[in-house]
């Protein structure tokens, strides 16, 4: 991340700063590429509409607090981009990996789940 991007995120936590400054792999690399793209756009915005840190409501979230910066986007963007990063998959995914059927959808707005195992032994 360039120095300009840090202007808007001066109050980020140490764990988020490390995430933004070190190469990532897997799901973290995907999340990081999304964040990098949004921060590129954010660099062209002049507002410093930075709110206090927002606690993450997701159980097991990797980043328990995220910046409240909203730029010209209307709502804080970091929670939208990073709330899906968790330390362990949800229980219904663990059950599916173990071979159990999905059963009822875990939420009303989910019609189904695709589980793709990649890597050794998959």
Task: Provide a quick synopsis of the model.
The protein is 36% helix and 3% strand. The protein has 122 residues and is mainly α.
Describe the overall structure.
With 122 residues, the protein is mainly alpha-helical. The protein folds into 2 domains: 3-82, no CATH class; 89-122, no CATH class. Helices cover 36% and strands 3% of the residues. The chain is built from 5 helices and 2 strands; from the N terminus they run H-H-H-E-E-H-H. The chain has helices at residues 3-7, 14-21, 26-43, 77-82, 91-97; strands at 54-55, 65-66. It has a two-stranded antiparallel ribbon with strand order 1-2. The protein is elongated. It starts with a helix and ends in a 25-residue tail after the last helix.
């Amino acid at each position: 991340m360039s120095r300009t991007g840090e202007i808007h995120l001066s109050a980020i936590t140490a764990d988020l700063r490390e995430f933004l400054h070190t190469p990532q792999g897997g799901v973290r690399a995907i999340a990081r590429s999304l964040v990098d793209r949004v921060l590129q756009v954010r660099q062209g915005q002049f507002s410093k509409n930075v709110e206090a840190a927002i606690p993450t409501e997701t159980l097991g979230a990797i980043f328990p607090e995220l910046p409240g910066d909203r730029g010209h986007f209307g709502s804080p963007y970091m929670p939208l981009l990073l709330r899906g990063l968790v330390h362990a998959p949800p229980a219904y995914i663990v059950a599916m990996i173990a071979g159990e059927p999905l059963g009822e959808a875990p939420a009303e707005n989910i019609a189904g789940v695709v589980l793709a195992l990649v890597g050794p032994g998959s």
